[in-house]
Amino acid sequence: MIIHILTFSNPEKINDLTRGELSFFEESAKKLGHEIKIIFARDCQLKFDQKPGLIIKGTRIKDIKILIVRANFLKSNLEFRHSLIRQFELAKVPLVNGYLPIMKAKNKLRTMQILGQHKIPIPKTYIVTNPEYLDDVITDIGSFPVILKTLAGSHGSGVSIIESKRGLKSIIDMIIKGDDSDPVMVQEYVKESKGTDIRVFVVGKRIVGAMERIATKRGEFRSNFHLGGRVRVAEMSPEEKRMAFKSVAACGLDVAGVDIIRTNYGPKILEVNANPGLEGITEATGRDIAGEIIKYAIKMARKKIKPQK
Question: CA dihedral in degrees (86, 113, 261, 226; nearest 10)?
């Protein structure tokens, strides 16, 4: 079977990270006797007449049996990119992951709302829209340092640790300058985690890998693999597994990375990622994670293919 993958990278300026991710899929598909074809978002033209469709360079929409969406985009052109994913759904193309789950997971504010709605434990978190009320947030958090995050970020980008009230006020005053400025997320810092978290990789209703990520650079609190964090296989408690499944189900994702932090009050969810990276989890576990995604995608495709009469 041919499995199509949608990527939002520029085909002329594809970076090493995306190239590596795609090579994982290509190698795994070959081992399983399948083939990968890449669809670049910029090669997709949206079509509207009697029904929504697409004109895609080198691919006919009817030939796409399943489309794995690698939502490797942040804030730029967010509305169009989400709409492109939705267009594939409207054209009746089966997706892994779908439009609405990606929307939920890509919006950190919305993710926090969903996790809170489902009573899934998360660190104390605030969305700050006006520096005027920052004192109330600081009083409620109770102590420094705190974590400052932008609402769009990946691989540890857009995340800072702030050591003082003066420093936090200065940065937020610089970021939030008016009604058109994006809000920022202020989150409690869990000292006992010591720069370590767990990334759980969920495919369908299975945990296909879990790794512990450990910050190794001096002064670095972020444990992300692409920031030099060390990775190793993680042993998970039944409660951590339950929380991971519940978080993925709440967002409606088929494939997800769930970041868990261990606190003195039990595990808490940091993030649910709709486009989890493959390199770190593959290195840590020694498992063919891309192959697991492909097998799941094929299973979903076959459910959609009707037998010929």
Answer: 30
